[in-house]
Design brief:
- With about 120 residues, the protein is mainly alpha-helical.
- It is built from 4 helices and no strands.
- The protein has helices at about 1-25, 35-50, 55-65, 65-115.
- Helix 1 (about 1-25) packs parallel to helix 4 (about 65-115).
- The termini are far apart.
Length: about 120
């Protein structure tokens, strides 16, 4: 009985940390993610040490709605990743444009001196 109580507590803590990760991603505080994911990994390690059946694990997994929170996390991370990729591409286009503009300016000065 004690193991099942510990397992339930671990699942609740796992869900809470997953929700914290979601909020951290939404707030774009990516520098904190490594530490939070490490905490979540410790909980997973503790869960693996608990002696219980797969049925008990599944019961608490479903009860704590872990699957839903994992889906929300995956979606948020995908959205943020896509946004960052768009920003990187836009920044790259701006740099190419500026380089082209700078080359035109340099050529115009060179041409005016020749004439």
């Amino acid at each position: 009985m004690g193991d099942t109580l510990n397992l339930e507590e671990e699942f609740i803590e796992y869900k809470d940390i997953t929700l914290t990760i979601i909020e951290t991603v939404k707030a774009e505080k990516y520098e904190k993610l490594d530490e939070i994911f490490a905490q979540r990994q410790l909980i997973l390690d503790d869960m693996n040490k608990i002696d219980c059946s797969k049925e008990e694990m599944k019961k608490f997994y479903m009860q704590c709605e872990i699957e839903n929170s994992e889906k929300v996390l995956a979606h948020e991370m995908k959205v943020r990743k896509d946004d960052l990729l768009k920003k990187i591409k836009q920044n790259g286009k701006k740099q190419i444009g500026m380089a082209g503009y700078n080359n035109i300016s340099a050529k115009a000065v060179f041409l005016s001196k020749e004439i």
